[in-house]
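Give me the fold.
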Amino acid sequence: MLMLLAAIVSTPAPLPLARDGTAMVADPCPPPAAPNPGLAALVTRLLAPGTAFAPPPVPPRDQPLTGQAARDWPGLCRYRAENAALSGPVRVVFMGDSISELWKAADPDLFTHGVLDRGISGQTSAQMLLRFQADVIALHPRAVHILAGTNDVAGNTGPTTEQAYKDNIVAMATLARANGIRVILGAMPPAGAFWWAPAMKPAARIVALNRWLADYARFNGFGFVDYHTPLATPDGALDPRFANDGVHPNSTGYAVMRARLAPMLARYLTISSKGVCR
């Protein structure tokens, strides 16, 4: 989604080598990129309620990945430095795609006092699974909030199956439970179309997968938050009051989502008399 817009073609940097001549180095990640004003403007257009959204040009689907995107398909470098710099207890990690990543920009107060955002724009559940150890388990949170699937339905990493998506969710939830981390599964927000893949009609598929997520969570004693119902129109699209592009919630949409999540999230946070997590 957003990463499709922010992609910049550049010459790959030389591959770093260790002293023994291998690529097993201490830090494989390049320095952080400079802020992208165009991307910041796009985020503003997505989050401000009532702002007109004109889909920008989208790179052709199925073009080969190059440079850092090819070397780090799961996105392990995205939060490497932030993870290393953490201090203090981690209470909840939000694992997801751009819907999770944008949530922090829309509602920064939510992501304080040990609540971390580890969303990466454009990612599918397969990519999240590959970074689940580094971005969730290694941080030792009390709980993980997993919100995944929109990009699986859109085929961002190629054609897939419902079972492959379910397997990835099961794998992440199983890893979390094995490490004493409570699991919260979020329902995919509704979508009647994807502007980067306009031929697709995802509404019914999203409803079916959300039904499976709810059943799977109930059977295993996991938390489940239904974000779909309060954001959807009768035909399964994302209500334009809550989104500017039909896929990503705006700040009003995120307020609805936070209200749905708040009672469950409170279980993993200690609230002082002043309403501050500590």
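The longest helix spans residues 203-220.
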